[in-house]
Design a protein that fits this description.
- By secondary structure, this protein is of the alpha/beta class.
- It contains 11 helices and 13 strands.
- The protein has helices at residues 43-51, 71-76, 92-103, 109-115, 131-143, 161-176, 188-194, 212-219, 234-241, 260-268, 284-292, and strands at 5-14, 17-27, 32-36, 58-63, 77-80, 149-153, 180-184, 197-202, 205-210, 223-229, 244-246, 250-255, 274-280.
- Strands 5-6-7-3-8-9 form a 6-stranded mixed sheet, sandwiched between helices.
- α8 crosses α11.
- The chain is globular, with a radius of gyration of 24 Å.
- Keywords: ATP-binding, Nucleotide-binding, Transport.
- It comes from Parasedimentitalea psychrophila.
Amino acid sequence: MGNTLTIKSVSKFRGKIQILQDVDLVIAPGERLALLGHNGAGKSTLIKTILGLTPVHQGSIQICGATPGSAEARRTTAFLPESVSFHPALTGREQLALFARLSGAGGDVAGLLDRVGLSDALDRRIGTYSKGMRQRLGLAQVLLGRPKLALLDEPTSGLDPISRQDLYAIIDELAAQGTAILIASHALTEVEARTDRIAILRKGVKVADNTLAALSRAADLPTHLRITAQSDQIEQLAAQIGGRRINGAALEISCSADQKMDELRRIAAMGDAIVDISMTPPRLEDLYRHFSKEDSR
């Protein structure tokens, strides 16, 4: 089975300013890709080119073999923008039913609204909805017709913590059904646990694209070990293993990934002097900071 989305050497200019530079990206069916980057890195521009809203100046984009903006690409692609906008005089049921008719997707409108937590508001006018409720209505629109590609731009914007968990549960369901999902987000903690791959744009250049584990190996950032010792042995322990004192009763040392097990064995050999050991590997925030500041080469 081929990739759902294939982006090859895409470049985009705004006047003399280059917005995207030779971007390559693929997403397979059922894969969840997080697209990260500072404001102005090119994330929104890339999404607009995938949707066919703006042309590329070099390179190509294929959605299940179709060209962005074509009838076939529109049928297979769903989009949830960061700030959704609907007609305020329509009810949630009316708006989603309209989308269903326009797309020819049909479907259980009331059931979809219930799935996104709007069952109590489906006959209320959208003008009375909160931002989070409008975001949920936008997600219900994404679910229409089981799209092959879903583009989600800051999908948790305006959602409370419970609603965010519900949204990612729905994203997981879409992926399980074979939908390829691209999530552009600044919520690093969320996407760290709920995506399969991370791609990072820096000034229009893709500087990273891999699984979290592979990016960690490539960055070779340190793992931090915090050792809590018996209060009367902290001085002796500090002299033996070095590190940084934390609150007078703990030490923190850093090591590379390939040194981690050796350090743990060395510390464990100290026996009853050790009360606890906690380990903090590099997080997505650390990797994002590392790759987004790297030279584009």
